[in-house]
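We emphasize that the prediction below concerns an isolated chain of 229 residues; any contacts that depend on oligomerization or on bound cofactors are therefore not represented. The input was used exactly as deposited, without trimming of termini.
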Amino acid sequence: MLFHPMDILIFIAFGLSLWAQFRVKGSFNRWTKVNASSGMTGAEVARRLLDDAGLYDVPVEAVRGTLTDHYDPMKKVIRLSEPVYGGTSISAVSVASHEVGHAMQHKESYPALKFRHFMFPAVNFSSGIAPLLLIGGFLLQSTNLIGIGIILFSIAVAFQLITLPVEFNASSRAKKLMVADGFIAGPEEERGVSKVLGAAALTYVAAALISLLELLKFIFIFFNQQSEE
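Result of the prediction step, given as a C-alpha cell string:
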C-alpha cells in the first residue's frame, strides 16, 4: 500500500513549503518598498563587495524575472533579477549581497559548496531515474527496484541537506558585509535584512524536510515489504 501515516507529516511539510514561498515573496515585496540608507543599487553593492574581495573577474548581470537571482559557479557570474539589479531597497541589497556570499564561498573553496558541486552530476542522474525506479518497484512489488531507487533518492536528499549550510553561510556573510561596508544602517534596516534572508532560507529548509520525510517513508515501506516476504 502506497499510503502511509507518514504521509501526514509530508503533507504538513508541503504546507510549510507553500507558506515559506508565500513568506519569501511577502518579505521581499515588503522590504522592496524601503530604501537602504546607502542609496546604492543591488548591482552597485554586488560590484563593490566583489571588488573588495578581489573578485574583479566576476561580472554582475541582469536577468529577467523576480527572485531569479543566483551565482553561476560554472561561468563565475552573478545574475540579479531586475528588481534587485537596479533597486535601492533593503530587499535589493540583501539579495545582491547574498549572491556575493556564494561567489566568496567559491573563491575560498568553502567545503560544503565544494562538496555540493562534486555531487551535482550524480544528483542530476539520480533525481531523474530514482522516481521511475521507485514507482516501478511499487507497481511490480520489487524490493530490489525500491532499494536501488532509495539509494539514488538518498543522493538527491543529501544534496538538499548540504545546500542548507551553504545558504545559511552566504546569508551570514551578507549581513556582516552590509553592516561593515555601511550599505545598511541602524536596527530597523538590519531587521529588514534578516527578514528577507531568513524567509529565503526557510524555503530551503522546507524543501529539505519534504525530501527527508519522503526518503524515510520509502525506507519504512522497503523494510516492511522485506519482512513480509
